[in-house]
Structures are given as structure tokens and as C-alpha cells.
Amino acid sequence: MNLLDTMMDECVMLDKSTVSDGMGGFVPTWVEGATFKAFVRKESAPEITVAEQQGVKEVFTVVVPKGVPLEYHDVFRRLSDNAVFRLTSNVADDVAPNASTVPIAKANCERWALS
Q1: Do residues 54 and 75 lie in contact, with contact meaning Cβ atoms separated by under 8 Å?
Q2: Are strands 83-87 and 26-42 parallel, antiparallel or unpaired?
């Protein structure tokens, strides 16, 4: 096991679905999907801290093994603390080059409340 594997937590995709409310309408619900490993950390650059003080949501970076197909607005839960995140970029936009010895990809995400 390498250091990167040690830092990553188990996560699970959350897929939005709908169920009948029994009165002709529907209720949104979240269903657990595939599991994957990820490292999520809060960004702490000074300009991000200033933006957060002005009302911008907290910014996080998620790092996953290359090939995990996370996309913009995908929602996932970190199982260690049940924190829920929603992607605000695509992992396909920031993938380590093939020559890299660390096969990872990363994206930005925000803490998310399921509705």
C-alpha cells in the first residue's frame, strides 16, 4: 500500500431518483451507487479564504485514481464522516499525464446538502 492509498477514503456515488408520493406527485430521493477511493481536502489559498468570507461556498479538491469517471455536478458521500460533496468541475479536465508515476486525476467540489 502506498502513501496515496493510505490518504484516500472510501466514497460512494449518490444518484438522484424519484419515487411516487402516493398523491400523483413525486419525491426526490438519493440512491447509493458505485464505491470508489478519493482524497478530499479543503482549499486554503488566501484568495479562496477571502472569497469564502464574502459568501462564496467552501472550495474543496477531490483527488481520485485515474479512470474514476466523475463529472460536473456528480454527488458523492465520504463514508468516514458522511460528508456529501458535489463536483464543480470534471476530473477529465485535470488528469496526470500518461508518463506520470502517480496515476491520479482531480477536480473541484463543494460541500453539498441533499435535497
Answers
A1: no
A2: unpaired
Over residues 23-75, the pLDDT tens digits come to 989 998 999 999 999 999 987 776 666 666 666 678 899 999 999 999 999 99
CA atoms of 85 and 93, how far apart (whole Å):
18
Q: State which amino acid sits at residue 101.
A: T
Distance separating alpha carbons of residues 41 and 10, to the nearest angstrom: 14
**How far, in Å, CA of 77 to CA of 112, rounded?**
9
- What pLDDT digit, counting tens, does each position of 79-98 carry? 999 999 999 999 999 999 98
Task: Just give the CATH number of 3-16+29-111.
Answer: 2.40.10.270
What's the pTM? 0.84
The C-alpha cell of 14 is what? 449518490
What is the SS3 assignment for 51? helix
- Taking the C-alpha atoms of residue 74 and residue 77, their distance in angstroms, rounded to an integer, is 10
How many CB atoms sit inside 10 A of residue 25's CB? 8
